Amino acid sequence: MEKIKTMSLVEKDQKNVWHHISPYVEEKPAMIAVKGEGAWLTDYDGNKYLDAMSGLWCVNIGYGREELAKAAYEQMKELCYMPMTQSHVPAIELAEKINEWLEGDYMIFYSNSGSDANEVAFKLIRQYHQQNGEPNRYKFISRHRAYHGNSMGALSATGQALRKYKYEPLASGFLHVSPPDSYRRPENMTVEEFNIMRAEELEQKIIWEQKETIAGIIMEPLITGGGVLIPHPVYMEKVQEICQKYGVLLIIDEVICGFGRTGKKFGHQHFQIKPDVVTMAKGLTSAYLPLSVTAVKKEIFEKFKGSEENLHFRHINTFGGNPSACAVALKNLEIMEKENLVAKSAESGEFLLQSLQPLAKTHPNVGDIRGIGMIIGMELVASKQTKKPVSPDFIGKIIQNCKQEGLIVGKNGDTVDGFNNILTLSPPLSCTKEDLELIVSVLKKVLAENQ
Ligand code: PLP
Q1: Which listed residue, 96, 175, 272, 326, has the most CB atoms within 10 A of its CB?
Q2: Contact by Cβ (8 Å): 143, 223
Q3: Per residue in 188-208, pLDDT tens?
Q4: Which Pfam families match (predicted)?
Q5: Is the predicted ipTM greater than 0.95, yes or no?
Q6: Does the CB atom of residue 255 touch ligand 1 within 6 A?
Q7: Residue 311 is part of which domain span?
Q8: Ligand 1 atom at shortest distance from the alpha carbon of 151
């Protein structure tokens, strides 16, 4: 009886629901989830899965937290909506809390998604330069392999060719440089030398492109969805130095790395840098409600102050800074603090990394394992000598076999054809010791069965 019900739900889903970024294959119906608790999801057939991706790298405090539901309920009863042309109490309190977490002095602009937050950053930085007497600064530089969102500006900044293919032409004025992919560095270079070289290439790009035209650089503290590419600290510190040298603003995209994901409150806090703009979403509410933020240094905001016509930032969205979303974010951060989840992320991530690391020596297809906090990437290669990526079928089978064993893992975004070979883990920061052990044991088993 249950089965019949499930079938009809699958049919209804296939008839009416257009899924995100997924091929439509009737024989491969989507998983229909009905419940989440801790790190675990239950589907309509009653199967349980440990979600080692926290959804899309976002359910940082885990599923099923009643306190967050209560915070949303209470706020909705009290005040369900207020446009951010004015203000409300949760928005004010959250802005203060975010500044505390950022250890900085930023103005907080609310939106709905990570893409929105980056779009806001691009628009306001172009406007800032105009109002700061440098109207020629309009270009943004980002990295190949990075993902910054789905809207025309954020997608233009994205460096994953397959995500843009068929949607071009996109916004103009977006340039890309190579990321520090240390695993694939030339054999005769140390990681540090290679990272310095990549930073110098960025400087060279600024010069070639006419330095007075560059408005900003956007980068994640590490490239996450593009393959878990963790820079040497010297890279980020040099990037900041270059930005300051050429009057270019540094936007750090913390959409994934923020809110404890990397074992610090924000990913950029691993480095000696102070970004001009920080964008954030996902872990801000642990994805219980949509909310994002563009945090902008006060010096930049100064140029938007005053009653003079056309000075203000002419940007609005209906839902950004929704009172219940802000209340949920506040409760989410309160729980992270109470349960010490940032420190736990560092500790649990280290456990995963240390437990999985031996596979890089023993398994013929595990070329590299890298991680920082609760983000792990396992680069799968057909040959360790050539570092040629494994086939999409191979990595697809690993993901499928993990799922059969009750474990959801991910892979890197569509960089270019054939370069989709990095298994990713981004479990809830609240994972128990048993959860972590299960992730390790399933991955070891599945990889041992596939080589
Ligand atoms: N920036 C990064 C680094 C992301 O990973 C994402 C989404 O995965 C975005 C921006 C876009 O966020 P959203 O999907 O909320 O628009």
Answers
A1: 326
A2: yes
A3: 999 999 999 999 999 999 999
A4: Aminotran_3 (PF00202)
A5: yes
A6: yes
A7: 66-338
A8: 16
